[in-house]
Write a structure and sequence with these properties.
Number of strands: 0
Order of helices and strands: HHHHHHHHHHHHHHHHHHHHHH
CATH superfamily: MFS general substrate transporter like domains
CATH topology: Growth Hormone, Chain: A
Number of helices: 22
Distance between the termini: 37 Å
Shape: globular
Bound molecules: beta-D-glucopyranose
CATH class: Mainly Alpha
Strand content: under 5%
Structural class: mainly alpha
Radius of gyration: 22 Å
Length: about 450
């Protein structure tokens, strides 16, 4: 495989290490969002939350993530990508320990809210940091390590929930364990270099050259540095987000962000056992079968990593989203037909697996990757932050109102609604999405800013 051959070559091995440490941010994102559904079963008899409080254990993290994503748009520029990740690591530790030590529902809600700041920050600063260090030939794959860590974190949370099921004080362990990767992230990032693009944007050219020297072959450093330098000269304000070429990219970022959630991925992931139970399975078999959804997500994210730099982002995103739409339509038909439910009860699981595999090669990794690629350096933090805020806010709305929605328009109606959003997204991607494969971040942004000043 081209990607595997490249990634173990020379200076790329160092990139691999940098990417894996930064992607611990993704591991925590996945773990902290995933762990609560299982932990809830044990928190309930212990802390006796009201219905609203139990929902807030989930929602508080998502709202915190919106705020964390908004604030880190500023800090990734002002303090650096690297320091923002160190702070996120420290917040992960504090949030995990505070969650584990909570004595009342509201203490836990506050702890989860604070944890959300780190989740929101790391969710986009990790891919941003990795893509600013990675060489263009393998940028898609290594940046998507972050997505691989997210899905591995979700999967690890299932395993932890299962392993600690019978232990005393189990939910405290489930929530507290996240302090370990949190500390590893903070300490690991402390020893990592700054992003060369951030250094150049602060006029620290010598240091930028030094970092590029660590992650590129000698003959590539000067050429890349002069490209970066040219871009780093541009000063910016928030208003630049609305300059013509940039504005088009901001719209693309927002559409991808919102589509990634409106297609219903988190309801499929977290309600998979509930969906399977509706087909007549017992709770234990539903939970066991739902595990296969988690494993499929991990396996197909690996597939995406291996082929993103060869096949390109556009085809994967379009084909992946079409796959999700087909799975959702069939799932809806399944729920609408009593014959299918009776004679083909395994069809629901097949649909869920097809859906998650298609998401894992498309909207899952490609959204986070492309928002780290399509924005010029001078607006990158602000624009990525905006897309990430939209992503978490939509995640909050979809997760909160899933059950209300199924009550109002039925289970099949809900899946068809998600499918409708997916169709709209596919049309938009076909018409508007650029290809960023094997182009340097500066080549991509030159096109965007040229358009902004009307020269193309
Ligand atoms: C999404 C998450 C989702 C995860 C699962 C991420 O890219 O942003 O909302 O839970 O993928 O695969």
């Amino acid at each position: 495989m081209d990607f595997l051959r490249e990634v173990f070559k020379g200076s790329n091995r160092f990139i691999l290490r940098l990417a894996l440490i930064a992607a611990l941010g993704g591991l925590l994102f996945g773990y902290d969002t995933g762990v609560i559904s299982g932990a809830l079963l044990y928190i309930e008899p212990d802390l006796h939350p009201s219905g609203f409080e139990a929902q807030a254990f989930v929602g508080a993290l998502l709202v915190g993530a919106v705020i964390g994503a908004a604030m880190s748009g500023w800090s990734a520029d002002a303090l650096s990508r690297r320091r923002t990740m160190i702070i996120a690591g420290a917040i992960y530790v504090v949030g995990a320990l505070a969650s584990a030590a909570s004595q009342s529902p509201w203490e836990l809600i506050w702890a989860r809210f604070v944890l959300g700041f780190a989740v929101g920050a790391a969710s986009f600063v990790a891919p941003m940091y990795i893509s600013e260090l990675a060489p263009k030939r393998i940028r898609g794959g290594v940046t998507s390590f972050n997505q691989l860590m997210i899905v591995s974190g979700i999967f690890a949370s299932y395993i932890v929930n299962w392993a600690f099921g019978g232990a005393a004080g189990n939910w405290r362990w489930m929530l507290g364990l996240a302090a370990i990767p949190g500390a590893a992230l903070a300490i690991g990032m402390y020893f990592q270099p700054f992003s060369p693009r951030w250094l150049a944007s602060k006029g620290r050219e010598e240091e930028a050259r030094e970092v590029l020297g660590m992650v590129r072959d000698e003959d590539e450093v000067e050429e890349e540095l002069s490209e970066i330098d040219e871009e780093a000269q541009i000063d910016s304000t928030w208003r630049d987000l609305f300059a013509p070429g940039v504005r088009a990219m901001v719209v693309i970022g927002l559409v991808m962000a919102i589509a990634q959630q409106l297609i219903g991925v988190n309801t499929v992931i977290y309600y998979a056992p509930t969906i399977l139970k509706l087909t007549g399975l017992s709770t234990t078999s539903a939970i066991t079968q739902a595990l296969s959804v988690g494993i499929t997500n991990v396996i197909f994210t690996v597939v995406a990593i291996l082929i993103l730099d060869k096949v390109g982002r556009r085809p994967l995103l379009i084909v992946g989203t079409i796959g999700c739409v087909i799975a959702l339509v069939v799932l809806g038909i399944f729920f609408a037909s009593s014959t299918l439910k009776q004679d083909f009860s395994g069809l629901a699981l097949v649909c869920l697996i097809v859906y998650i595999a298609a998401f894992a090669v498309g909207l899952g990794p490609v959204f986070w990757l492309m928002i780290s690629e399509i924005f010029p350096l001078h607006v990158r933090s602000a624009a990525m932050s905006l897309s990430t805020v939209a992503n978490w806010a939509t995640n909050f709305l979809v997760s909160t109102f899933f059950l209300t929605l199924t009550g109002a328009i039925s289970v099949e109606g809900t899946f068809w609604l998600y499918a409708g959003f997916g169709v709209a997204a596919v049309i938009f991607f076909v018409l508007k999405l650029p290809e960023t494969k094997n182009r340097s971040l500066e080549e991509i942004s030159e096109e965007v800013t040229d358009e902004a000043v009307g020269t193309t």
